[in-house]
Known about the structure:
Blueprint: H1 10-15, E1 23-26, E2 30-34, E3 42-48, H2 55-61, H3 64-80, E4 88-91, E5 107-111
Antiparallel strand pairs: 1-2, 2-3, 3-5, 4-5
Amino acid sequence: MNKNYDNQNIFAKILRSEIPCHKILENDHALAFSDINPQSPIHILIIPKKAYLNFYDFMENASIKEMEFLWKLVNDVIKLNKISKKGFRIISNSGDDGNQDVPHFHVHVLGGKNLGRMMI
Ligand code: 5GP
C-alpha cells in the first residue's frame, strides 16, 4: 500500500462496510456506487477494492487484472445505464491541482443529460 494512503478515508470505510453506499455493481476487484452529491442525473463512482491513492498510483502499482476489472466495471455501468449512444463523461480528479477530495482512486461516470463543455 502507498505510504501516503489514509485508510480512514470515506471510500475505505465504504469498502469495509463501516458506512453504507448505494451499490450499483461490483466484480472481484472493483465496486460501483452512486455519488452522494450527484452532479447529473446519472453520477456513479467506480473504485478499486484495494488501496490506491489516485489514477497514477493505480496505474503504477495495480495488477493488469485489477486494471482490467476496474475499467470493465466502468463500461458495465455505462451499459447498465444505457448511455453509450447518448454519451457520458468520465472524470478522475487527482491530487491538489485536480481537486481530489477523497484520497482513494475513483472514476466518476456522469450522464443522463447534456453536460455542457467542461473547459473553454
Ligand atoms: P473527488 O472530488 O475526490 O473527485 O470526488 C469525491 C466524490 O465523492 C464527490 O463527488 C462526493 O460527492 C463523493 N462522496 C463524498 N463522500 C461520499 C460518501 O460518503 N458516499 C458517497 N456515495 N459519495 C461520497
